[in-house]
Write a structure and sequence with these properties.
Length: about 230
């Protein structure tokens, strides 16, 4: 009888419609997060390893053991073109789990990048390869290959639950996870939000104030906001 999922590799995971993923990739993390009802964000300590990194794709999930990157090599076999590797750890660890050699292997598989609640290294090489990485830390400390984790099980990454096949989107504003079965609907909602914001953006360009655009004056007055003529007090 199994007491946990350690040592499990699930193959043949379901992925969302690639057209829906492509549509979702057009939007930023903030827009997607808001369109979903302000949910789905990973903790803000997950940051791009280098400036300009961004990614979007279905998740191949990895559960790592602290100081051990063995399961990355197992996970590479499960990656299909367009996937993103998403890695959590059984406990907090900022060791340098991932670097240029693993990125080279994953690039050959068509991987779109990595999100990891842990450390990475070889950042200059990752940037020159244009392999997007979002991580908890940058750390030169190496790891071993000795302890089993898992591949393609649900993992918690920076306080967010990520299931295999969920879509992960990351940019300079952070990382958001979109459930696999909602990718098309969230892409639609994101487009609607983007269209609405563009209309507001044009009004702001024309000089309209947020006070008027959002109908704030009456509720502000009801809350007790008072305008005082400073010149009259002189």
């Amino acid at each position: 009888m199994r007491l946990n999922d350690l040592g499990i590799v699930r193959t043949g995971i379901q992925r969302p419609d690639p057209d829906d993923v492509a549509r979702l990739s057009q939007f930023g993390v903030a827009t997607i997060h808001e369109a979903m009802g302000r949910v789905g964000l990973l903790r803000p300590y997950i940051r791009p390893a280098y400036s300009g990194a961004k990614l979007c794709g279905p998740a191949v999930t990895v559960l790592l053991q602290p100081g051990d990157n063995w399961m990355f090599h197992v996970a590479a076999e499960q990656v299909q073109a367009g996937d993103v590797l998403v890695a959590g750890c059984t406990t907090e660890s900022e060791d340098g789990f991932f670097g240029e050699l693993l990125a080279t292997s994953l690039t050959a598989r068509g991987c779109k990048g990595l999100v990891i609640d842990g450390g990475v290294r070889d950042v200059a090489d990752l940037e020159s390869m244009d392999f997007p990485v979002f991580s908890r830390a940058i750390n030169a400390k190496g790891t071993v290959k000795a302890t089993l984790g898992s591949v393609n099980i649900p993992v918690v990454v920076a306080n967010a639950l990520v299931n295999p096949g969920d879509v992960v989107v990351a940019d300079v504003d952070g990382v958001v996870v979109v459930p696999r079965e909602l990718v098309g609907a969230v892409a639609d909602a994101s487009q609607k939000r983007e269209d609405n914001e563009e209309a507001k953006r044009q009004q702001f360009r024309d000089g309209v104030l947020g006070l008027d655009l959002y109908g704030m004056r009456e509720p502000l007055a009801a809350a007790g906001l008072e305008y005082v003529d400073a010149e009259g007090e002189a």
